[in-house]
Amino acid sequence: MTDLVYALLQVSHNFGAAAVVASPIFASWLGREQPTIQRRLAWLVVFGAMIQVGSGIGFGLTSYLLKGHLPEIEGVAYGALLVKVFCVIASPAIVLRFVLNATKDETRKQRCAWLSALILGSTAFTAAAFLRWYL
Question: Looking at the 3D structure of the chain, how many domains does it have?
Answer without folding.
Answer: 1
